[in-house]
From TrEMBL:
<dbReference type="GO" id="GO:0051603">
    <property type="term" value="P:proteolysis involved in protein catabolic process"/>
</dbReference>
<dbReference type="InterPro" id="IPR001353">
    <property type="entry name" value="Proteasome_sua/b"/>
</dbReference>
<dbReference type="Pfam" id="PF00227">
    <property type="entry name" value="Proteasome"/>
</dbReference>
<keyword id="KW-0647">Proteasome</keyword>
<dbReference type="InterPro" id="IPR029055">
    <property type="entry name" value="Ntn_hydrolases_N"/>
</dbReference>
<protein>
    <submittedName>
        <fullName>Proteasome subunit alpha type-3</fullName>
    </submittedName>
</protein>
<dbReference type="InterPro" id="IPR050115">
    <property type="entry name" value="Proteasome_alpha"/>
</dbReference>
<dbReference type="GO" id="GO:0005839">
    <property type="term" value="C:proteasome core complex"/>
</dbReference>
Length: 241
């Protein structure tokens, strides 16, 4: 019975994740960078664009891929969990503890059989002078530390190459450019015509706080990505972008 629940859950769980817009998290020498593609806000609801990057604790960033409603529910859960931990211990919640708590919550829904599994994958990241940069991915199989984490766009082949890359010695200012380049590489001109890119970081430069990158850093990343694309993509691909 467990195996049948597992296979059904995995098939359902990955459906929206694979069809979702790309998102990425990279751990560098002095922090963590998050990047997503998200839908442009419409004129009727200018402040709503299905935000997929959030600050769930003062020093912990959160990003997800897949069903927006499920991801939003997970975001609310970890925010409440972080508040509860602070009320009980009078100190900030460790990122690993928050990831473990979220994983247990996700696994409970997946393996009960009578509950709908959450159709999204999540990543939490932080930086501190004691532990340094950390990334934890939460998914049905396991929760473990990562050097980089990529989901969406049907798991493009660039994932394998990016996962093999070592970013441990690269500062976050350069990683912002690498994240932007990856998101531009997997962008589909037709399907992503109404998409915009968002980048955030938590690092030594931000005092360990998670926040969106400044506008000047964002523009530098966009310029780097657009200038580097002709070198990476096959000839003729850029004509469609």
């Amino acid at each position: 019975m467990i195996s049948s629940v597992d296979s059904t859950g995995d098939e359902y769980f990955n459906r929206n994740v694979n069809n979702a817009k790309a998102c990425v998290a990279i751990r560098g020498s002095d922090g963590v960078v998050f990047g997503i593609q998200t839908t442009k806000p419409c004129s009727i609801y200018p402040n709503y664009a299905g935000e997929r990057i959030a600050t769930v604790a003062d020093k912990i960033g959160f990003v997800f891929s897949g069903s927006y409603s499920d991801g939003e529910a997970m975001q609310k859960y970890v925010i409440e969990e972080a508040k509860s931990y602070y009320d009980s211990h009078q100190r900030d919640v460790p990122c690993f503890h928050l990831a473990e708590s979220l994983a247990n919550y996700v696994h409970e829904f997946k393996y009960q059989g009578v509950l709908k599994p959450f159709d999204c994958r999540m990543c939490l990241g932080t930086w501190s002078p004691i532990t340094g940069p950390e990334i934890y991915a939460v998914q049905p199989t396991a929760t473990q530390p990562y050097k980089s984490w990529i989901h969406g766009c049907n798991d493009p082949p660039d994932n394998a190459e990016m996962s093999k890359s070592s970013f441990d010695r690269i500062p976050v200012r350069q990683l912002v450019k690498e994240a932007a380049l990856f998101l531009y590489m997997v962008r589909n001109t037709i399907n992503d015509a109404r998409c915009i890119m968002k980048l955030s970081w938590v690092s030594e430069d931000t005092g360990g706080k998670h926040e969106f990158v400044p506008e000047n850093v964002f523009q530098e990343a966009v310029e780097f990505a657009t200038n580097d694309l002709p070198r990476i993509l096959p000839s003729g691909t850029l004509s469609d972008m």
